[in-house]
Amino acid sequence: MSFMRALLFMSLFFVLLPAAAQQPAAASGDGVQKPGAEVKPEPPEWRKTEGYRFPAVAKTVEDMQNLAYAMQLREFCANPRVADDFVRERLDRFGAMTGREESCQTLLDY
Q1: Where in the chain are the domains?
Q2: Would you state the pLDDT for residue 33?
Q3: For the whole model, what pTM was predicted?
Q4: What segment(s) does the record annotate as region Disordered (predicted)?
Q5: C-alpha span between 69 and 83 (Å, rounded)
Q6: Exposed, middle or buried by CB within 10 Å (0-12, 13-18, 19+), for 25?
C-alpha cells in the first residue's frame, strides 16, 4: 500500500512541478531589497529562457533534492523525541543550501 502512495505522490509531483515553476515569484511592492537577498544580473538577450515550458534539468534535480530533504526535516520537526538543537542545526544547514532562513513552518513551501 505504501508503494502505491509513493507512486501517486511522485506522479502528482511531476504533474504539478512544471506549473509551479512557471508562476512568477511575488515581488515586494516597496522596492526595497531584503538583507541577504542576492541581486542576479540580467542575462544577455541571447541567454533569456522565459519562454521555456520546463525548467532546466539541474533546477528540477535541485528542487527534488530540496523536497526530499524538507520532507525529512518535517519529520524531525514533528517528532518531539528529536532534540531541538539537532533540528535547529539541520534547518540551518538546509537554509545554507536554499539561500533562505528555514524553520519548521517554511518547510511547508516544498
Answers
A1: 65-109
A2: 57
A3: 0.53
A4: 26-47
A5: 18
A6: exposed
